[in-house]
Amino acid sequence: WYVMDSSIKPYPTCRWMHASLDLFAKIVKENKLKPEDIETVIVRVHRTAAEKGSVYEPKDWLTAQVSIPYNIALVAFGIPPSSEWQSPERYRNPEILNFHRKVRVEEDPEASKIISAPEQPTYGFKKALTSIEVTAKGKIFKAKAEYAKGDPWSPETEMTDEELKDKFRSF
């Protein structure tokens, strides 16, 4: 029974990108960045996430869910997570398309080692090392995480009851 090891997804996306969305949102909020302030975003994730998540022009709701650049763009524009993230109006929006071309997804060899480590559970993964680098306003902002919001393995990442209620209301 793995119910206590279940992660709850705060974003309507592939789970592998959640830490990058968390990190990017934190950098944007703390530094009061607007989409036009941001020059580049580099997301470093494990091999599979880098290969599958590098979709630059989502064609449908499914490719929208797995595109790291597209979903980073949604966060940049302050669009709250909801089913709207997979709507054609969003993934065909010229502003979103222009912004998500600023995002580059790369493999982090250290993250790839962690994801395939023997101590990772067979039913999923616990650690998914992610780092992000945002160039904006003449500065470089960096952040790194091993877990994402919604993971049950640390008090910092567990979703509160109120966050869970908000998620279900918005979805």
Radius of gyration: 15 Å
Which sequence of strands runs across the widest sheet? 2-1-3-4
How many individual helices? 8
The total of beta strands comes to 4
Give the helix proportion (percent range). Answer: 25-40%
Shape assignment: globular
Q: Distance N terminus to C terminus?
A: 27 Å
Low-confidence stretches: none
Mean pLDDT: 89
Largest sheet: 4 strands, mixed
Chain oligomer state: single chain
Helix/strand structural class: alpha+beta
**What is the chain-wise order of helices and strands?**
HEHHHHHEHEEH
The portion of residues forming beta strands comes to: 15-25%
Can you walk through the features of this model?
It is a single chain. The protein has 171 residues and is α+β, with helices and mostly antiparallel strands. It contains eight helices and four strands. It has helices spanning 18-30, 47-52, 61-66, 68-76, 88-91, 94-100, 109-115, 161-170; strands at residues 38-45, 103-107, 130-136, 139-145. A four-stranded mixed sheet has the order 2-1-3-4. Strand 3 and strand 4 form a beta hairpin. Helix 1 (18-30) packs parallel to helix 4 and helix 4 crosses helix 6. The two termini are 27 Å apart. The mean pLDDT is 89.
Summarize the model shown.
The protein has 171 residues and is an alpha+beta fold.
What brief labels describe this structure?
about 170 residues, alpha+beta, 4 strands, about 35% helix, globular
Write the layout of secondary structure elements.
Layout: H1 18-30, E1 38-45, H2 47-52, H3 61-66, H4 68-76, H5 88-91, H6 94-100, E2 103-107, H7 109-115, E3 130-136, E4 139-145, H8 161-170
Parallel strand pairs: 1-2
Antiparallel strand pairs: 1-3, 3-4
Helix pairs in contact: 1-4, 4-6
